Amino acid sequence: MIKFFRKIRQKFLAENKFSKYLIYALGEIILVVIGILIALQINNWNQIQKLKKEETKILQGLFVEFSENLVKFDSHYKNQLRRDRIIKDLLDPKLVDAPFEIIDSLIYYHGWNYKFNPSTGIYNSVINSGKIDLISNDSLKKSISKFNNFLVDFEEEEDGANFYGTNFMTPYIRSQLNYRFPFKNRTKDQFDYDNKIYREVIKSNRTRNELIFYSSYLLITLEEGKELRHQMILIINMLDDELNK
Description:
Elements: H1 2-14, H2 18-91, H3 100-109, H4 121-129, H5 138-176, H6 188-202, H7 205-243
Helix pairs in contact: 1-2, 2-3, 2-4, 2-7, 5-7
């Protein structure tokens, strides 16, 4: 093709048709430029398609990870609500008149700690690698970027509640009681003793103050948990919308 164009140019020159030569040469240059532009456009289109595929892969991965973490969180949050109810039951003045088995069970389970451990491999990879910039939806990108702040806030409050329960609340309770595994067969003397002591401990001012302080930790944890769950659902819905466009 190049030889063909060259022969035409040489023919014009040989025939002293210089003006036609210039016009033809200019046309040839324009065709070459157009060809280059088309090639660049095709290359640009291919690059855009490649980035879109990469974005879709990222969105799919995040959707699966956030969805699985939401299921995990809901199960975890139920345990936190259960712990909160136990503390409230221990603070109920009427508990002192409840059957001993109920008191025994509440005291045993009040000290259980729970820790939310979400899967964040894909999330961390997207953030740390800078691939979050491939997400074209600015609102989604912003929500994903800020999500870790909500997660850290919840984890800090949860760790605070667990620390207080482990290092202050539970040791104090156990120091006041002849602590036994609940429902374990007691002799009559053990039952009578524990029945009397447990009731005295749960109505003491020291115990109530410890429980109230512990409850305040749990209250903040639960509030942070609500906000964290809200953010998870928001991101999941936005991811779903993007994937179904």
